[in-house]
Write the structure tokens for this entry.
Amino acid sequence: MTTKKKPKVYITRKLPEPVETRMRELFDAELNLDDRPRTQPELVAAVRSADVLVPTVTDRIDAALIEQAGPQLKLIASFSNGVDNIDVEAAARKGITVTNTPNALTEDTADMTMALILAVPRRLAEGSRVLTDSHGEWAGWSPTWMLGRRIWGKRIGIIGMGRIGTAVARRAKAFGLSIHYHNRKRVNPATEEELNATYWDSLDQMLARVDIVSINCPSTPATFHLLSARRLELMQPSSYIVNTARGDVIDEDALIKSLRAGKIAGAGLDVFENEPSVNPKLLKLAEQGKVVLLPHMSSATLEGRIDMGDKVIINIRTFCDGHRPPDRVLPARV
Ligand code: DGY
């Protein structure tokens, strides 16, 4: 009886223990136990020797890297939902399949989006700092102190009504927000009815009419700086922006200018244009209580990461068994 050779799988970052254990059992797995981000030369060496590359959102898998891949590399099984860091078209040209992990982080990301929707208008981070910075020696309650803005009864405008956008809408509805959305296409009538959602074909018109904007679309060439300086000008001075998608969907410099000028009231950001570095002007605005900043942790739950790992494993196994993997990402143009 012949035993099938295990595929050589290169994993760029540390993954939860149960995922690494399963990968060791199933594959000839090269793990990253100390979680040091891999350098581009290390990635080049990996694509020249591995059958499968498992990158994460912190790896740049661009055309130059893919070009250097050896003929043995047939699959990039990304441990991520977003694939904006991977040149999917370059991979397709080289005959390499790309997969991702959709759905595994929908609910966790929607939870954190909702947390920011509450945190910014209700001044959660500021209030917490009052106690920690004063070591508990605060002046006490007063009727006019720490006043935020009410959530209930306001309008939310969701940009990108895919899985995560819809999950945000369900939560937002329960918090008394009326649901407005802009998407490439209208969602099905049953979902619109369930959410009592209003579709805006024109993003400009929606921006001018909502109190909270939630960004839930992927980063693509079409969504780069979708919230441009011009569009930010359309928003009301009392409105807020929450972004748990990708930093480059907003023109960050323009956002900073709008916040400083009081043209919008605040922002909750989990993602940044030049991650992992964060613009010092945003840090300053956070000190002033105008923004709440998180370090790209919307999907960070143990359960979510294990689900993502399971999806990666299923994609690799299905592919290596000669079938179409369930979470194949198709290039926009081949
Ligand atoms: C993803 O997988 O795209 C997320 O941004 C990770 O948090």
Q: What stands out?
A: The mean pLDDT is 97. The longest helix spans residues 302-320. The chain has 13 helices and twelve strands. The CA atoms of residues 23 and 29 lie 6 Å apart.
